[in-house]
Design goal:
The complex is a heterodimer of chains A (661) and B (462). Chain A has 661 residues and is an alpha+beta fold. Helices cover 36% and strands 17% of the residues of chain A. In chain B, a hairpin with a 2-residue loop joins strand 9 (259-265) and strand 10 (268-274). Chain B is globular. The chains are: A alpha+beta (661), B alpha/beta (462). Chains A and B meet through helix 20 of A and helix 3, helix 4, helix 5, helix 13 and helix 14 of B.
């Protein structure tokens, strides 16, 4: 008997429908997941507790930022939607870290939240094979499916049930419940059992997941107050403008289309008075009073946390960001809090420019149920339940971009499974998405996970500027990238390669106009002739600047020139990382069979054996990243697998001989 | 799988008349050619496989030893890779020098069990041997870890930890600024970092220099002298060393810390540790010494248990004897110059528990009698293989030194990036490499250190 199935069997008065894929939740993960499945031709239904909150941005009004901008670009190169839609709905944009190396340049756009949400809703509505449904899913329904020799019995998904009793059959289910599962919001002593922004929480599904033996965590996050723009005095703040020339997120967006009039953000600071108010009221903060049980993210600390943990800091920066064009609400970035309402009123008022502030929505902390992601394969399918996938904050991450990219991967892999095709797993050397998912499923994750550039060990190769070169072909193979975009990327590759070859052969003499150009850029003049590549590598010069002394240079698109410049300028470092990647790949390629029995391997240390049995890594490489597995354990595994392989070969040989006789 | 070139010492280090350094991997011949010089100048690369050449190992023009060199081309070697064996005169010093020279010229010190692992993975060993291969890898690794952690002197690991903390803090700062450019500015940072890197490089250089003289790890048989207070342990150490190194008084509990000395017994290196007398004590300082003594007792290769034969066995003795079961022990009945109250007979119940037998020798550390018999007993145990000799320490030392040199190299790359005006995000790559290299010495993996440090030290985030 299936879990959940029993309950509906006797009741014929119910809605019953059949789809290929059910997506639970229509946030940033759910939308990407549903779009991917539907675009690949699968009948898909997406559930949300409120159709008005599709692709809601309940926290910061921006998309991208350091390393998150990389994720959006990667989503775009694979055929996801986030980049395209933010390009159409942003109100300010900035390339961060421009003065630093190309690997850490990151795009961040302020969104018009309502517009973004509406745009995504339209995209869903206009997509074929996609049904939007407002209902709360209360149960996942599964049945037994054969026995795994090693683990307990495995199950497979057959559909979901809603609170009203309706049953939706499906071949795959993708859980993207965000912060809605068992949610409760806290503002000081006031606790309400709602999801973000006062929306309905989803209170039933957790129980069904627990019944299926899924290990749940309880995480916490928070958001600052929204304040009335008309009550602020901007003359006391510093204006923060966007870039003069905006770079779009999507590789498919026409760069001219994003040169719009932008809206400014504002910068102000906390002060001694702010900090004093917070300190005096710490006992009323649910976190410090011990009311909150969830684990909060350290990178997104509440202002209480900042004041307590960094008590020597005299002030903290506060960014005032518009929530959109048609709203008077402003987001008070850097000041999330779970203090009681009266304390919030008092503390916000201490900021310069906030003397007469009116709060529109209070700051609050939110607690929610999510899973321990070590229960997932890197495909984002549950190890124990076939056909059940998940993405986003439900997987213990944090952030719109982190959610969206997981949703996309979960959607792609659910589709690949149904279509009987190879799954898409990106590794740590291919994409930030690969780093993110590998970290989630391989490492112990005790707080909401946020992407950071420092988490990517090969970040010189994983730049936002080459996401298209890295991933467009994969998106095309999956079927989410058009033929046209595919051909464009092939052409781009060709141009880059040819131009690199040409530039490598160009020699520059110490002629007068060369010396003049060098002088103009404050570069040391030449004694003798040199290679053009040598000049490009000088910090004060680049490929573009040297155009006047490179008469043979063909006319090339800007993005091609950019790649040529970066590849030449940082060649030494790039080559070093490529070499590291080669070594990394060797271990990644050594696959471990899914039903591998670690108890049969002699000489594994107990700790390693336990960890390996929990994580069930898919490759030796992944095994080597599990904490508690030593290099010697890895050697032992290699030797054992080699032995297995020999045995198999011997058996095959013997079998053949037998047949011949 | 790994295709680099490795080297290790293939023979027991002490007491042997011959030493073998083995090199395996694609560059084995190339590496050997850089240190091996034959009369007539013929290169090894011009030599046929499975032949023996005679010549000298030299480094920087200095002759280290006369050697025979054996070339085995792939696949006809133990590891099925190109393999070069350098047969030299035994003796710890020469063998180590040769291994170091080989490592400096392109080979990497082998990991524990790595030759065997390669032999297996290259299909050289029989399937039935797989299990023992796995055991060897795990055992050698544990041994290496244990010896590394155990013998790494406290001050050295402290210095390495300090340097690592300093490096990590800088990387965390850079990364915080990259992550949150609106909160942290890197203006002028490269000048500050250069000073820090120079300073750290200086410290690492000092460590390398000191590793040339005193080894990083104490090599030799870890020999621990135990006994109850005032049994004469320190006198014994002094007479073994032939000098007054330990303070000897008649007051029980004089030795409060542990004293380490190295001595050479006809080629067998003993790393001798004199411990505080083991007894229950209320004295805080003495208690620390006693706890340490118990700790060393756990780790010892050889225990010399000193019994004061002029007194009767007491509960402190019984406590010690309980801890000695299963260990390699020599019992000394000390103070044979005084009237004996304890003789071999009294030790009988204890000796019966010692399965492999246990030599009991009467000595007088004060009068220097019986010492020859003690030395002979140690030598016998060694040559009859009862004492397992910790060869791993030698290669661990070389691994550590290589790691220090790699650290220095990474730091100089940071300096180079600064001088060439590279953006700041490039610094953290090599700083992190240096951090990892240092971590390999004290046996610490990187894991999530960086992210932890960013959150601990810098107020990042929305």
């Amino acid at each position: 008997m299936s879990v959940g199935e029993k309950m509906y069997c006797g009741n014929q008065n119910r809605v019953e429908e059949t789809y290929d894929v059910v997506v639970v939740g229509a946030g940033h993960a759910g939308c990407e997941a549903a779009l991917a499945c539907a675009r690949l031709g699968l009948e898909t239904i997406i559930f949300t507790v409120s159709v008005d909150s599709i692709a809601l941005m309940p926290c910061n009004p921006n998309i991208g930022g350091t390393s998150k901008g990389h994720l959006v670009r990667e989503i775009d190169a694979l055929g996801g939607q986030m980049g395209i839609n933010i390009d159409k709905t942003f109100i300010q944009s900035k390339m961060l870290n421009r003065s630093k190396g190309p690997a850490v340049h990151s795009l961040r756009a302020q969104a018009d939240k309502a517009d973004y949400s509406m745009k995504m809703r339209q995209t869903l509505q206009e997509t074929k094979h996609l049904t939007i449904r407002q209902a709360e899913v209360s149960d996942i329904v599964t049945r037994e499916c054969g026995e795994n020799e090693i683990e307990e019995k495995r199950r497979e998904i057959i559909g979901v049930k809603t609170v009203s009793g309706a049953f939706y059959h499906s071949k795959a289910v993708i859980l993207c419940t965000g912060t809605y599962l068992g949610a409760r919001c806290l503002t000081g002593e006031m606790i309400s059992h709602t999801g973000p922004n006062g929306l309905m929480a989803a209170n039933h599904l957790t129980n069904s997941l627990l019944l299926h033996g899924i290990e749940m965590y309880r995480f916490k996050t928070g958001t600052p107050a929204r304040v009335d723009k008309n009550s602020l005095d901007f003359s006391k703040m510093e204006e923060q403008k966007g870039d003069e020339r905006v770079v779009p997120f999507s590789f498919a967006t026409d760069p001219e289309s994003v040169q719009i009039e932008q809206v400014p953000c504002w910068l102000t600071y906390t002060n001694a008075r702010t900090h004093e108010i917070i300190r005096n009221n710490l006992d009323r903060s649910p976190i410090y009073a011990g009311i909150i049980e969830g684990t909060g993210p350290r990178y997104c600390p509440s202002i209480e946390d900042k004041v307590v943990r960094f008590s020597d800091k005299e002030r903290h920066q506060i960014f005032i960001e518009p929530e959109g064009i048609h709203t008077n609400e402003m987001y008070v970035g850097g000041m999330s809090s779970s203090m009681p309402e009266d304390v919030q009123h008092e503390m916000y008022r201490t900021l310069p420019g906030f003397e007469h502030v009116k709060i529109v929505r209070n700051a609050y902390a939110i607690e929610y149920d999510c899973i321990n992601p070590n229960q997932l394969h890197a495909t984002l399918e549950f190890k124990k339940i076939k056909g059940l996938f998940s993405g986003g904050q439900f997987n213990g991450s944090s952030g719109y971009e982190e959610a969206a990219c997981q949703g996309l991967i979960a959607g792609i892999n659910a589709s690949m499974k149904i279509l009987g095709r190879e799954p898409l797993v990106l590794d740590r050397s291919e994409a930030y998405i690969g780093v993110l998912i590998d970290d989630l499923v391989t490492k112990e994750n005790k707080e909401p996970y946020r992407m950071m550039t420092s988490r990517a060990e090969y970040r010189l190769l994983l730049r936002q500027d080459n996401a298209d070169l890295r991933l467009t072909k994969k998106g095309y193979e999956v079927g989410l990238i058009s033929r046209e975009r595919y051909e464009r990327i092939c052409q781009k590759e060709k141009w880059i390669e040819e131009e690199m070859r040409r530039v490598g052969q160009v020699r520059i003499g110490a002629e007068k106009r060369v010396q003049q150009l060098l002088e103009d850029y404050g570069s040391i003049p030449l004694n003798t002739g040199t290679r053009l590549t040598e000049l490009i590598r000088r910090p004060e010069l680049d490929y573009q600047k040297l155009a006047p002394i490179d008469p043979e240079r063909p006319e090339l698109p800007e993005d091609v020139a950019e790649q040529v410049n970066i590849n030449i300028k940082y060649e030494g470092y790039i080559l070093r990382q490529k070499k590291q990647v080669e070594n990394f790949k060797k271990l990644e390629r050594k696959k471990i069979p899914e039903d591998f029995d670690y108890d049969n391997v002699p000489s594994l240390r107990i700790e390693a054996r336990q960890k390996l049995k929990i994580y069930r890594p898919s490759s030796i490489g992944q095994a080597s990243r599990i904490s508690g597995v030593s290099p010697a354990d890895i050697s032992v595994l290699l030797v054992y697998m080699e032995q297995m392989w020999f045995r198999k070969k011997e058996e095959v040989k013997e079998g053949k001989n037998g047949a011949e006789i | 799988m790994k295709t680099d070139t490795i080297a290790a010492i293939a023979t027991a280090m002490a007491g042997a008349g011959l030493g073998i350094v083995r090199i395996s991997g694609p560059d084995a011949v190339f590496v050997a050619d850089r240190v091996f010089f034959e009369k007539g100048g013929r290169k090894l690369s011009e030599t046929k496989s499975h032949t023996i050449r005679y010549g000298e190992i030299r480094e920087d023009g200095e002759v280290i030893d006369e050697v025979l060199i054996l070339l085995m081309k792939a696949p006809r070697s133990y590891t099925r890779e190109d393999t070069v064996e350098i047969d030299c005169h035994g003796g710890v010093y020469v063998v180590k020098r040769i291994l170091e020279a080989v490592v400096r010229n392109g080979a990497r010190p082998a990991e524990p069990g790595e030759f065997t692992k390669r032999a297996f993975l290259n299909g050289r060993l029989d399937l039935s041997q797989a299990e023992s291969v796995m055991d060897v890898i795990q055992a050698q690794n544990e041994f290496a870890l244990k010896s590394s952690v155990r013998q790494l002197s406290g001050s050295l690991s402290r210095v390495i930890r300090e340097i690592r903390a300093e490096l990590l803090h800088e990387v965390a700062f850079i990364e915080s600024a990259l992550d949150d450019p609106e909160h942290f500015s890197l203006d002028g940072y490269s000048h500050r970092l250069k000073v820090i890197v120079n300073n750290v490089a200086g410290k690492v250089e000092k460590l390398i220099a000191s590793s040339e003289n005193g080894r990083i790890l104490k090599e030799g048989i870890l020999t621990v002298i135990v006994g109850k207070p005032n049994a004469g342990k320190s006198s014994l150490l002094n007479s073994m060393l032939g000098e007054e190194r330990a303070i000897v008084t008649e007051i029980a509990g004089t030795t409060r810390d542990v004293l380490r000395e190295q001595m050479n017994l006809n080629g067998i290196v003993l790393n001798v540790i004199d411990t505080a007398g083991i007894r229950d004590t209320e004295d805080v300082v003495e208690k620390i010494g006693v706890d340490k003594a118990r700790q060393y007792l756990e780790d010892a290769d050889l225990v010399i248990y000193v019994v004061d034969s002029s007194t009767e066995l007491d509960e402190n003795d019984f406590d010690i004897m309980d801890r000695l079961v299963g260990r390699k022990v020599i019992v000394l009945l000390n103070k044979s110059d005084l009237h004996a109250k304890t003789e071999e007979e009294e030790l009988r119940p204890f000796l019966e528990k010692m399965q492999n037998g246990c030599k009991v020798i009467s000595v007088s550390a004060k009068e220097q009698t019986g010492m020859d018999e003690l030395y002979k007993a140690v030598k016998d145990m060694f040559f009859f293989g009862e004492l397992r000799f910790n060869d791993e320490v030698y290669i661990t030392n070389i691994r550590h030194k290589t790691a220090l040199e790699n650290t220095l190299e990474s730091l100089s790359l940071v300096r180079k990036s600064i001088e060439e005006g590279m953006p700041e995000d490039f610094y953290s790559i090599d700083l992190m490499n240096a951090y990892e290299e240092l971590g390999s010495i004290i046996g610490e993996a990187v894991e999530e250190d960086l992210v932890e440090e960013i959150f601990r030290s810098f107020c990042v985030g929305k």
